[in-house]
Known about the structure:
Layout: H1 15-35, E1 38-41, E2 44-47, H2 51-58, H3 60-95, H4 103-111, H5 118-129, H6 136-142, H7 156-171, H8 173-184, H9 188-196, H10 201-212, H11 214-229, H12 233-239, H13 252-261, E3 262-263, E4 266-267, H14 270-299
Antiparallel strand pairs: 1-2, 3-4
Amino acid sequence: MPAKAFRWHIPVFLAPAVLVYTAIMIIPLFGTLNLSLYNLEGQNRIFVGLANFRTLFGDPQWSNAFWNALGNNAWFFLVHMVVQNPIGILLAAILSSPRLRMAAAYRTAIFVPAILSFVIVGFVWKLILSPIWGIAPGMLDWIGLKSLYLPWLGKEEYALTTLALVSVWQFVGIPMMLIYAALLSIPEEVLEAAEMDGITGVGQFWKIKLPLILPSIGIISILTFVGNFNAFDLIYVAQGALAGPDYSTDILGTFLYRTFFGFQLQLGDPHMGATIATAMFGIILVGVCFYLFAIQTRLRRYQF
């Protein structure tokens, strides 16, 4: 009998979602990729291939700003990986304890900042840390540590780390809730068997629970990577489009904004802006592929 031709069918109830996703994601993505391959000469748009990428990576006028923004993005991501995610795991482990009272209230209080607007968070923390009218100097003075206060947002060596820690404060509730859900999904039989073997408390977490939630930790890590390399709002609200002081908080998102839309007397360049956006897409794509093919396959052994 002749083999039947394979046909890919989309369920009827998914067709509207596919159309919406294509309209708001796929078409703009390919439009951006296409825009990065052109440039303007006078009033005419001409195809230049990869010339915009050679300019971005090779012309000092562009490459210095690009590598500075990329380095700042990497540091912004590293702070979240080293500070935010371990704290989220620790909080989840504490809040998942059946002996902890008012755990639901604590979870809610920690998660609330994650639903706040970036504008509110950036503006409020800028007020808190202000050396003129902020409450941070007074609070440090109250506990006898006023000598440690510095205008952190005004110093090049501290501004980016300070904003990264503000972002950690805002979003630590997300990894906490994901890990909390993963911990609750561990079968009771496994924990009971561990207790029968004398593995309890902290030892049970390190030897039993942590290996079982590694896939969830991997997912949180890749979400942190994607989220931080797409960051823009907090830096823009707190430090403006110039990402001061002296571009020390400039990341790829603010660099893209200034290039594409222009700023002050600088005219926007949509073609170079699309080139930066394409470079961001490439960086995120490489990171996601590395996770899927090099890390996720190793973590599957811990799944039930």
